[in-house]
Amino acid sequence: xxxxxxxxxxxxxxxxxxxxxxxxxxxxxxxxxxxxxxxxxxxxxxxxxxxxxxxxxxxxxxxxxxxxxxxxxxxxxxxxxxxxxxxxxxxxxxxxxxxxxxxxxxxxxxxxxxxxxxxxxxxxxxxxxxxxxxxxxxxxxxxxxxxxxxxxxxxxxxxxxxxxxxxxxxxxxxxxxxxxxxxxxxxxxxxxxxxxxxxxxxxxxxxxxxxxxxxxxxxxxxxxxxxxxxxxxxxxxxxxxxxxxxxxxxxxxxxxxxxxxxxxxxxxxxxxxxxxxxxxxxxxxxxxxxxxxxxxxxxxxxxxxxxxxxxxxxxxxxxxxxxxxxxxxxxxxxxxxxxxxxxxxxxxxxxxxxxxxxxxxxxxxxxxxxxxxxxxxxxxxxxxxxxxxxxxxxxxxxxxxxxxxxx
Length: 407
Known about the structure:
Blueprint (H helix, E strand, L loop, with lengths): L50 H11 L3 H15 L8 E4 L4 H12 L5 E6 L6 H12 L4 E5 L3 H15 L4 H18 L3 E4 L32 E2 L2 E2 H7 L15 H6 L3 E4 H4 L4 H12 L23 H12 L3 H11 L5 H11 L8 H8 L3 H10 L6 E4 L2 E4 L3 H8 L1
């Protein structure tokens, strides 16, 4: 068996119910180009079914959602203010999930939310339109935080070259913006949408309503890793200073505790269904799907606000053999929107599609040539996943071949 990069399981196994494989990372930790690096991936039981599918069963059969909603009402009552100030911070971009979360918290549960947005790298036309609709048609207050553009481009380029993870700096900002601004504005409740544990991160996190504050436990800001480098290294190598990194430095867990800030997931309290969020957002906030499907998948309404988004999913395809269509199809299979057989065919058709539409813009954004792009990408292809035939790279294991075996 060929050596596997990133500590991935050397044998590829596909879930028998959805189309995800055991190569899916179970967290947003950084992945370096190294053989045998220890890393956790999505769990599978002895019957070959993934943790995400099993949790979907739990959502359907074992959770009393009336009790969970009652707990949400109690939570809102505890934090609701009568002095006119904001009583909840809701991070988001105006996509279907944050539109659903913010609108329902305001208009059904009577909260006064401040929505906060960590700006995309480069807005798409439909992304900007949905952002404006979210605020104007949805009737919501918003604060848009756009980090230092020169620094963010540099970090994105470094994350691509060092980790093949161009979204790493964005993910850091997106995750800390809610708690950071809550502490600054004296708001004690932060509400994100769904917990990523639903889709294959640590399954035990699904049974906890709050975010793990270990993410915010830092001893020295200079040791924070962005783009595969510590901030102190970046400062030594460039003309950036520590003050430039202010938006990327999370509040400590101790500071959040001193400010009584709690970070919750709405998906713990309400039965989360991404497609139903889409319908709700369309009706109540003017959210619109794209006029064309997203490259690398078949959908038109998920993660459509950033021109770099499709390159994030292309890099997950390269590193883990899991592209955008796999993520979308696995989710829709679990929610009984499509069958596994249909999902397998959608993955076969779209998963390995190269994102051409914004390719030149992406190269310009990260200051690389097309040759440098492909050289970097190919360094991260694990030999247990990929083989080269002439000039073409092919996956050794695919879900559509697995589907034929099951049939």
